[in-house]
């Protein structure tokens, strides 16, 4: 019966739900294998790197699940200077990473916007335009998105977090700064400007259903999304949602396994349904399972985001507890991840952008 669904040309919402509810080991294996076959057909046996630079944890937002939310007083706030960021970008370029991701807490003040613009154009210069740049700095005005695009950013990742509006409102404060509709508008602005647009969700948020996750995948399709970065929700104990989750038993082994499985199933079902998009096997997977990222690739992911943040800052950028790789440096992360990719019989696309095929297949 599962094979009937897996071999369908077009999956319905009901099919997505059925697949996301699978529990039996052999059925899960069949799902992952089918998703991997789709990845092989549309992408190949190759993974691409986005060296992750987490350059500041100052944030004006107060997302109730995130460790670096504005009102967490326990966070030691930092902002790297331009030289530090360029040093990491240069390292990524020298190590043929193909692309980097610039990520930070959210700020919209002019000083920040100008700083980022300058950093983006300096990275473009130092790499002769050969280093792809994914930006992940939250909600900004269309003018700012345009400014950063013109400076050299060409992909933007802004997660919708959940497409269940009620749940969205539960996990964010109720004010203009945290509006669901605004976030959707931002995704539309990014598309209009010409970015490869990425979004994603967290899986296993308290109160989230399997139906919600199926609707998230339909949203990816309806928004014609090019890239997906999603991962299991992970507790950060000093946050309101983290406290609730701990009461619900999120620190137990069984629950970690449940959310890890949700993470893998979402990758696999998204791959089956959307075929040619880029899908990241995120670090959050590894926070729940030591082999998380390899398993994410085997379930249909094709993008890895090795952290290249300077060692001194890693500990301070914790969106969730037990973040992996905090003790490592960029060289260690490269060696470790590259071995992980090879261990499953794939190559790393060193020196290549690894752009979203979906973006270029449009209108063909
Ligand atoms: N401020 C930027 C980038 C940093 S947050 C932005 O909002 O885009 C990047 C992502 O981390 C968020 O989109 C969220 O999905 C994820 N994240 C935050 N807290 C998390 C948690 N407790 N568990 C899992 N993922 C989390």
Give a quick set of tags describing it:
about 375 residues; alpha/beta; 7-stranded parallel sheet; binds S-adenosyl-L-homocysteine
Describe the structure concisely for a colleague:
This protein is of the alpha/beta class and 364 residues long. The chain has helices at 2-6, 13-20, 25-42, 82-94, 110-126, 142-151, 165-171, 180-193, 210-222, 240-247, 253-274, 283-288, 292-298, 311-314, 330-343, 357-361; strands spanning 46-49, 51-56, 99-104, 132-136, 155-157, 196-199, 202-203, 227-228, 231-232, 278-279, 303-304, 347-348.
Describe this structure in words.
The chain has 16 helices and 12 strands. The chain has 364 residues and is of the alpha/beta class. The strands form 3 sheets. Strands 2-3-4-5-6-8-10 form a 7-stranded parallel sheet. It has a 3-stranded parallel sheet with strand order 11-1-12, with helices on one face. S-adenosyl-L-homocysteine binds next to loops.
| Proportion in β-strands | 5-15%
Mean pLDDT: 96
Biggest sheet: strands side by side, in what order? 2-3-4-5-6-8-10
Each distinct ligand: S-adenosyl-L-homocysteine
Write down the overall geometry.
globular
Regions with pLDDT < 50 over 5+ consecutive residues?
none
Category by helix and strand content: alpha/beta
Largest sheet: 7 strands, parallel
Helix content: 40-55%
H/E series: HHHEEHEHEHEHHEEHEEHHEHHEHHEH
Give the termini separation: 34 Å
- Strand tally: 12
How many helices?
Answer: 16
Supply Rg. 19 Å
């Amino acid at each position: 019966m599962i094979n009937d669904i897996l071999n369908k040309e077009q999956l319905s919402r009901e099919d997505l739900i059925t697949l996301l509810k699978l529990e039996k080991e052999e059925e899960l294996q069949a799902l992952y294998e089918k998703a991997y076959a789709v990845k092989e057909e549309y992408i190949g046996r190759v993974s691409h790197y986005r060296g992750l630079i987490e350059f500041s944890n100052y944030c004006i937002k107060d997302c109730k699940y995130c460790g670096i939310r504005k009102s967490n007083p326990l966070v030691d706030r930092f902002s790297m200077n331009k030289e530090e960021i360029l040093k990491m970008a240069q390292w990524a370029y020298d190590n043929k990473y193909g692309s980097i991701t610039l990520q930070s807490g959210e700020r919209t003040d002019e000083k920040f916007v100008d700083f980022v613009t300058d950093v983006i154009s300096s990275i473009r210069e130092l790499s002769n335009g050969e280093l792809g740049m994914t930006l992940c700095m939250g909600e900004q005005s269309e003018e700012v998105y345009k400014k950063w695009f013109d400076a050299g950013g060409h992909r933007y990742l802004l997660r919708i977090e959940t497409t269940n509006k009620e749940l969205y409102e539960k996990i964010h404060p109720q004010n203009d700064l945290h509006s669901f509709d605004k976030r959707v508008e931002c995704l539309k602005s990014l598309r209009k400007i010409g970015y490869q647009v990425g979004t994603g969700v967290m899986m296993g948020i308290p109160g989230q259903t399997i139906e919600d996750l199926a609707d998230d995948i339909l949203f990816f399709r309806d928004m014609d999304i090019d890239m997906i970065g999603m991962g299991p929700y992970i507790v950060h104990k000093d946050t309101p949602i983290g406290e609730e989750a701990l009461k619900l038993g999120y620190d137990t082994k069984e629950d970690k396994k449940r959310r890890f499985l949700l993470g893998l199933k979402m990758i696999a079902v998204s791959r089956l349904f959307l075929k040619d998009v880029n899908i990241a096997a995120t670090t959050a997977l590894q926070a729940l399972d030591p082999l998380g990222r390899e398993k994410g690739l085997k379930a249909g992911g094709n993008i890895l985001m090795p952290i290249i943040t300077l060692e001194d800052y890693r500990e301070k950028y914790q969106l969730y507890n037990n973040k992996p790789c905090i003790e490592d440096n960029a060289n260690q992360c490269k060696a470790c991840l590259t071995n992980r990719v090879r261990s499953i019989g794939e190559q790393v696309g060193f020196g290549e952008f690894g752009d979203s095929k979906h973006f270029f297949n449009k209108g063909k």
